[in-house]
Design a protein that fits this description.
There is one protein chain. This protein is of the alpha/beta class. It has 2 domains: 172 residues, Rossmann fold (3-Layer(aba) Sandwich); 93 residues, Pantoate--beta-alanine Ligase, Chain: A,domain 2 (2-Layer Sandwich), CATH 3.30.1300.10. It is built from 11 helices and 9 strands. A 6-stranded parallel sheet has the order 1-4-3-2-5-6, sandwiched between helices. Helix 7 crosses helix 8 and helix 10 runs antiparallel to helix 11. It is globular. The structure holds adenosine monophosphate (AMP). Adenosine monophosphate (AMP) binds next to helix 2 and strand 5.
């Protein structure tokens, strides 16, 4: 496994590959867990070589505190990547990516960016778009893998690729969960013992909401979810929304021809957790 910190060196390596070598790419922010590894394993099967980037991208954090406290476990990450047969790891510094101008490009994602995460994390998706576009330019992948854990991000990346005509296939991957249902996340390691014990309530509520959605309208389901969290001593609901899977617009009238998904963001103390479920 080769590890590069410089753009030039990783590009040189990629340019030296035989023509026709299929490159699978998995961008991450590190603190890797089995959710990340599931993306890499899929990329291994579908490509000749797999490139993983580890970069805690400053421009996608709306809260400085969250950026500073983001878990960093680079030694463990590298040994995990080696164990799953990753070929190339790209670990740039912020200076390497942004030079002295740590700023986002502004994007128009046809409104996808104004929903849910976009409402609560100002500038987040401009930051995501900026880094992913830059990484695609550097790595020039054939296929790139993104988790449905960040479903809105997945849709936004698809939109960016389509609007900018970037020649890469974007592949969405299932949410990988702990045995108790909690969606794996690098942030889970920051939960206290009590918060960690409480956190599976999020997915349990989503699963129940899915059942309720079969017999109730979206407003009633939303009220039910809000009420469940109001009663909870450790978890605070930021938003619960049922939206059209493609447009991410909040549901108006339930139509059988449309696909819906429920999205949720919850605070356990200062730790913000997100999840979603197909309805
Ligand atoms: P992150 O390091 O949080 O930026 O995540 C890197 C990639 O891994 C993103 O495409 C995430 O959606 C994906 N990912 C994170 N957690 C999970 C999970 N539990 N299941 C599937 N994919 C995940």
């Amino acid at each position: 496994m080769l590890v590069f910190a410089k753009i030039k060196s990783v590009q040189q390596k990629i340019n030296s590959l035989n023509k026709g070598t299929k490159i699978g790419f998995v961008p991450t922010m590190g603190a890797l867990h089995r959710g990340h590894l599931s993306l890499i394993e899929k990329a291994k099967i579908e490509n000749n070589i797999v490139v993983v980037s580890i970069f805690v991208n400053p421009t996608q954090f709306d809260k400085e505190e969250d950026l500073i406290n983001y878990p960093k476990t680079i030694d463990k990450d590298l040994s995990l990547l080696k164990s799953v047969g990753c070929n190339i790891v790209f670990v740039p510094t912020a200076k390497e990516i942004y030079a002295d101008n740590i700023k986002s490009q502004q994007f128009d994602f046809d409104g996808l960016e104004h929903q849910m995460e976009g409402k609560f994390r100002k500038g987040h998706f401009d930051g995501v778009g900026t880094i992913v576009k830059r990484l695609f330019e550097i790595v020039t992948p054939d296929n790139s893998y993104f988790g449905e854990k960040d479903f809105q991000q997945l849709q936004i990346i698809k939109k960016m690729v389509q609007k900018n005509q970037i020649p890469v296939n974007i592949i969405g991957c299932d949410i990988f969960r702990e045995e108790d249902g909690l969606a794996m996340s690098s942030r889970n390691s920051r939960l206290t013992y009590e918060q960690r014990k409480a956190a599976p309530f999020i997915y349990k509520t989503l699963k129940q909401a899915k059942i309720e959605f079969g017999i109730k309208n979206a407003l009633e389901v939303t009220e039910w979810v809000k009420n469940e969290f109001e009663k909870h001593p450790l978890l605070e609901l930021e938003y619960f929304e049922i939206a059209n899977e493609e447009t991410l617009q909040p549901i108006e009238n339930k139509k059988t021809s449309q696909k819906y998904r429920a999205f949720i963001a919850v605070f356990a103390g200062k730790i913000r957790l997100i999840d979603n479920i197909s309805l």
